[in-house]
Specification:
The chain has about 130 residues and is mainly α. It has 6 helices and no strands. It is elongated.
Length: about 130
């Protein structure tokens, strides 16, 4: 996600910046978690109730601003989210992400291919993919 978001050109991308959302979520969660641990360590019951209120607000924020994070595990979420920018994304050479970027680009090609009219010409102009 970080690589894709780094490749996005202005005006092309229509999805969510999921990596950025994950970083923001992590920062907000870290603050809430630290408050709870601190209050528990001091046995500060009044402080714990205050933290519980902040956690409730955090959950509200999570549901409103970070809804995409709940969808990350869905099979086609990343493809659907980033497909608007896949054509302009460069394939990294000798990188751990090379196969993943190629797979996303192939999926993008499969989505575009059905729009070619039946009986269209294949690579050798035969109409049957060159056979």
């Amino acid at each position: 996600m970080e690589y894709l978001e780094g490749q996005i050109q202005e005006g092309i991308f229509t999805g969510r910046m999921v990596h950025r959302d994950m970083e923001r979520f992590h920062e907000e969660f870290k603050e809430s978690r630290g408050g709870i641990d601190s209050c528990i360590g001091r046995a500060d019951v009044k402080g714990i109730y205050s933290v519980i209120d902040r956690v409730a607000r955090f959950v509200e924020t999570l549901e409103k601003e970070f809804e995409s994070l709940a969808k990350i595990g869905q099979p086609d979420f990343l493809f659907e989210n980033y497909k608007s920018c896949l054509q302009s994304v460069q394939i990294p050479v000798n990188h751990l992400l090379t196969d993943s970027i190629i797979a996303l680009k192939v999926m993008n090609g499969e989505v575009i291919a059905p729009s070619v009219p039946r009986g269209g010409h294949g690579p050798l102009g035969t109409g049957r993919g060159g056979k």
